[in-house]
Write a structure and sequence with these properties.
The chain has 51 residues and is an all-beta fold. 0% of the residues lie in helices and 43% in strands. The radius of gyration is 14 Å and the shape is flat.
Length: 51
């Protein structure tokens, strides 16, 4: 699963925006509740294609 979104360059400038594409997965909740969505990022560099 991939999560696609935009990021800002820094806290003072909202433009230009950068595109981020990060891997997302669900992790089992150790407290017994619903699984937790984990997103590794933000990543704006190239990544390998999903398999």
């Amino acid at each position: 699963m991939l999560f696609v979104y935009h990021t800002h360059k820094d806290l003072n400038n909202s433009l230009p925006r950068a595109l981020a594409i990060d891997r997302a997965y669900f992790k089992k909740n150790s407290k017994g509740g619903p699984d937790i969505l984990v997103i590794d990022g933000p990543t704006v560099d190239g990544q390998p294609m999903p398999k």
